Amino acid sequence: MNKIIIMLLSIIIVIAAMVTALIIYMPEEEKEENMKIANIAQNKVDNDKNEMENVINVVETNTNEERISPNAFITFKQTYNECGHTKVEFVEVPQEFVNLTEEELKQKYPEWNVEKFTDTDIILNKDVKGNCNEHYIVKDVNGIVTVFRVLADGTEEEYQVTDIATEYLTDTDKIEMEKGIKVNGKQNLNQLIEDYE
User: Fold this and answer.
1) In what order do the strands lie in the sheet containing 121-128?
2) What's the CA gap between 159 and 145, in Å, rounded?
3) Phi-psi category of 142—alpha, beta or left, where left has phi over 0 and alpha has psi -120 to 50?
4) Could you give the CA distance from residue 126 to residue 101 in angstroms, rounded to a whole number?
């Protein structure tokens, strides 16, 4: 922007210098004619300058809009109304989303709310009816650590039979296994199983 203004000012100075030189060295009758031409030229330069400044302002306004960069991540957060748990998923931005604005992203995901929007970090969230289906109970079944999924109606279905024998667990863990250890989320479940291995 500064280069354009400097260029316009240089043109104005050159025109003014030429007009001044013509005025000084011209006969009187030609001076009036040249003054009219100089005024027309000055008006043209002023109009061009104003048009250029308008173009610059429009370009600056358009470039200030934040856009998704190629190395951005999208975080999807779903909160379930029955259990109150939030499931979070991180995804690299798909190639076709690069350079989208926040408004354009909203059009791609109309059912999601934009919680955060920067060029590299986007968080989308929404409320979901029902249960997150990631409620588990870990129990001792015939001396083996076994995982059951708790269904929306409260019933349990066998989810995973591990190869971990309960006889090698601590007495505290064995007592908790008899009651059933409640775990929410696959990540927490995987961490608990790792702790027993």
Assistant:
1) 86-92, 73-80, 121-128, 113-117
2) 11
3) left
4) 20
The one-letter amino acid code at 135 reads: H
State how far the Cα of 68 lies from the Cα of 101, in Å rounded to an integer. Answer: 7
Label the pairing between strands 73-80 and 121-128.
parallel
CA distance 143 to 166: 5
* pLDDT tens digits for range 115-139: 999 888 999 999 988 778 888 999 9
C-alpha–C-alpha distance, residues 122 and 105, integer Å: 10
Sequence letter at residue 28: E
Q: Which residues contact 85 (CB under 8 A, 6 or more apart)?
A: 79, 132, 134, 184, 185
Give per-residue pLDDT as tens, 43-100.
666 766 666 665 555 544 445 688 888 899 999 999 888 888 888 888 998 898 888 8
Output the furthest CA–CA distance in the chain (Å, rounded).
Answer: 118
Residue 135: C-alpha distances to residues 43, 83, 129 (Å): 76, 9, 16
Amino acid identity for residue 19 in this structure: V
Q: What is the dihedral of CA 32, 38, 44, 47, to 10 degrees?
A: -100
